[in-house]
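Trying the structure run again after the queue cleared.
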Amino acid sequence: MAHRILLVDEHRILRDGVKAILERYDEFVVDGEAGNGADAVQFCRRNRPDLVLMEIALPGMGGVEVAAELRRTTPATKVVILSTYDDDLSVIGAIRAGARAYVLKRASENDLLEALRTVMTGGSYLSPQVSDQLLHRIQRGEIESEQPRRSVESLGPREVQVLRLVAEGRTSKEIAGTLNLGYQTVRSYRKTLMRKLGVNNAAALTQLAVAAGLTRLSRP
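Done. Tokens:
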């Protein structure tokens, strides 16, 4: 029986490309597609696909949050990340959240197929470029497991509140309503968080929050 796969990526052209690859192999069938994390979670709750092949940077609910939510609600559905991001924070955040494989979009078709087959037989997989990079940085002592927590601990109470809500996929408007702040004030907080934490997008903020244990998504 073919393995049923949900494709999740904001860009339709990328989903079409991956779908065209998978359709050449009888062992896989694309059971559905989603352009954002919330739709992916809803699809999995309804249809229970065997595997989700997903970008880590998604509108609203990011890939790390989706992986953790699926781990909690549909644990039989395995998650494979297919992303352009190869930084340590993205990779470690995804694996901690429950992803079974991390494949770079610049990888070959054979690498992608190997990752899917490995995961569906109970294994785990990292793109060679990712595993080599992590190994070298660990050997050089450049990865500090406590760094995300220490970075977040340097924030003020209100900044932590905003960061936690960003990690939950809230928009700036929603955060403003929740914390009784002005919309522009929230946008200012988000910019300040990115500057202080050394990141440049909401997906990276979410990964930092998860790595630092700020949300329930960081717990099994």
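The chain is about 55% helix and 15% strand. Worth checking whether this holds up in the mutant runs.
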